[in-house]
Specification:
By secondary structure, the chain is an alpha/beta fold. It folds into 2 domains: 4-175, HUPs (Rossmann fold, 3-Layer(aba) Sandwich); 205-324, TPP-binding domain (Rossmann fold, 3-Layer(aba) Sandwich), CATH 3.40.50. It is 27% helix and 26% strand. It is built from 8 helices and 17 strands. A 7-stranded parallel sheet has the order 7-11-6-1-4-5-12, with helices on both faces. Strands 14-13-15-16-17 form a 5-stranded parallel sheet. Strand 2 (11-12) and strand 3 (15-16) form a beta hairpin. Helix 3 crosses helix 4 and helix 5 (220-229) runs parallel beside helix 8. The longest helix is centred in the C-terminal third of the chain and has 18 residues, at 307-324. It is globular and about 60 Å long. Residues 5-189 form the Electron transfer flavoprotein alpha/beta-subunit N-terminal domain. One of its GO terms (molecular function) is flavin adenine dinucleotide binding. It holds the Pfam family ETF.
Length: 325
């Protein structure tokens, strides 16, 4: 068991991301009864410290600075390295999100440390922590462990179950003295192309459209179904290339990798590049008029027919079910 585990919590759009709780749960599993310390970077983020403690952190370190409001490589790297030097943890866990994927290898390189990337599970066997991570675009899995030095890993969102929130837990919150030097990048403003809604990377339900939706207008039924199910809308690269939607919705080998509880693929043929981004979803439903579409090979439930008939019917049926629940 590690005596001290440092985990990086993450705030996005003024909200604490669920992957923060997942990472704490992983840290708790590694630390056992020992200490789990959460590091939270941002601007005016002290209100989130209590929730991190309620979800399993023993201490919360707040690194607050106006230049930390939006992620930049230099700023976050400096803060994490500073805290690692001050805290000397046995393990460091970082969410495998866009910021995490950017900063983690830079930290590893600076420390000359090994790192397990994109872990979807972990188990503790005596003094050894064994991580499971996908390889070959999700077609196989491998086990990895860190044999010496800092136990360092990034964790894919939506794979590790967070601990139940316990309002009775108490812990210490303290400020980190932040000294940011020689920042090469400062974010002044973030302009989004997509509308607000459920974060695609953390969504439990995803409705994804492909070339079969035929147009930007064809995505409207998908958004309606997503609204009913409290989910997010994604897309294949083909739909993005055809300019039916923005590339921020792209799921696949060159887009986002998602693992929702329910993935509904609408008008998606099932190219291997797309399957690499969603094949580990817990339940996959495929809707396609081509009965030979490769997507049916990985689907748990298959619906053959015109998506413009099927999706509105599903939306109406789910509305009835949700109303009667």
């Amino acid at each position: 068991m590690a005596e001290k585990v440092l985990v990086l919590a993450e705030v996005r759009d003024g909200e604490l991301r669920n992957v923060s709780f997942e990472t704490i749960a992983a840290g708790r599993k590694i630390a056992g009864d020992n200490e789990v310390v959460a590091l939270l970077c941002g601007d005016q983020v002290s209100d989130f410290s209590e929730r991190l403690i309620h979800h399993g952190a023993d201490r919360v370190l707040l690194a607050e600075h106006s230049d930390l409001k939006n992620y930049t490589t230099d700023a976050y790297k400096q803060v994490i390295l500073q805290v690692l030097d001050e805290e000397s943890p046995d393990a460091l866990l970082i969410p495998h999100t866009s910021p995490g994927k950017d900063v983690a290898p830079r930290i590893a390189a600076k420390l000359n440390s090994g790192m397990v990337s994109d872990a979807v599970d972990l188990e503790v066997a005596g003094d050894e922590v064994i991580f499971t991570r996908p390889i070959y675009s999700g077609k196989a899995f491998e086990k990895q462990s860190v044999t010496s030095g800092l136990l360092f890993a990034t964790l894919r969102p939506n794979n590790i179950q967070p601990l139940e929130e316990d309002p009775s837990r108490s812990g210490e919150t303290s400020q980190v003295s932040v000294e940011l030097k020689d920042l090469r990048t400062v974010v002044k403003e973030v302009v989004k192309k997509t509308s607000g809604g459920v974060d695609l990377a953390e969504a439990n339900v995803i409705i994804a459209g492909g070339r079969g939706v035929k147009s930007e207008e064809g995505f409207k039924p998908l958004y309606e179904l997503a609204d009913v199910l409290g989910g997010a809308v994604g897309a294949s690269r083909g739909a993005c290339d055809a300019e039916y939607c923005d590339y921020s919705l792209q799921i696949g080998q060159t887009g986002k990798v998602v693992t929702p509880d329910l993935y509904i693929a609408v008008g998606i043929s099932g190219a291997i590049q797309h399957l690499a981004g969603m094949s580990n979803s817990k339940v996959i439903v495929a809707i396609n008029k081509d009965a030979e579409a490769p997507i049916f090979d990985v689907a748990d439930y298959s619906l053959t027919g015109d998506l413009f008939d099927i999706v509105p019917l599903l939306t109406e049926e789910f509305k009835k079910e949700m109303a009667g629940a």
